[in-house]
Write a structure and sequence with these properties.
oxidoreductase, Pnp Oxidase, Chain A, Pyridoxamine 5'-phosphate oxidase-related FMN-binding, about 30% helix, coenzyme F420 binding, Split_barrel_FMN-bd, alpha+beta, F420H2_bilvrd_red/Heme_oxyg, eight-stranded antiparallel sheet
């Protein structure tokens, strides 16, 4: 990996706000503002989504995805591209998907004030996890 690629991935890890691009059936991009977590050891971006939203349906059909991150200065940016996978839909408060959603929440925000309520909400909302491995990264690294 080059120094520029390292700088771009550092940018991805420096924020949690991003835009996830998936592909609609007609090939045009579908863009969603999301909160993401980047794990540099696994070179993996994760996002919590609801099962019935366009981005989840698009990824079920076509796993190609891009995540765009912009720095505070607006001129530095990074795009992660890869083939995403989706966890199963959260079905029970103690299933593997809910456990991964708990792990993702902790990585993003720390401890939740009521984990039982959070777990119930993940099942009720039909949440899943998008896992986007870094296949390619490009952009304009910070100076």
């Amino acid at each position: 990996m080059t120094d520029a690629q390292d700088a771009l991935l550092d940018l991805v890890g420096s924020t949690t706000r991003s835009v996830l691009a998936t592909l609609k059936r007609d090939g045009r991009p579908q863009l969603s503002n999301v909160t993401h977590h980047y794990d540099p050891e696994r070179r993996l971006v994760r996002v919590s989504v609801t099962a019935d939203r366009a981005k989840a349906r698009n990824l079920e059909r076509d796993p190609r995805a891009s995540l765009h991150v912009t720095a505070e200065d607006f001129w530095s940016w990074a795009v992660v591209e890869g083939d995403a996978t989706l966890s199963p839909v959260a079905g029970r408060e103690d299933d593997a998907t809910v456990e991964e959603l708990v792990d993702l929440y902790r990585a993003l925000a720390g401890e939740h004030p009521d984990w039982d309520d959070y777990r119930r909400a993940m099942v009720r909302d039909r949440r899943r996890v998008v896992r986007l491995p870094v296949g390619r990264v490009y952009g304009q690294p910070p100076q």
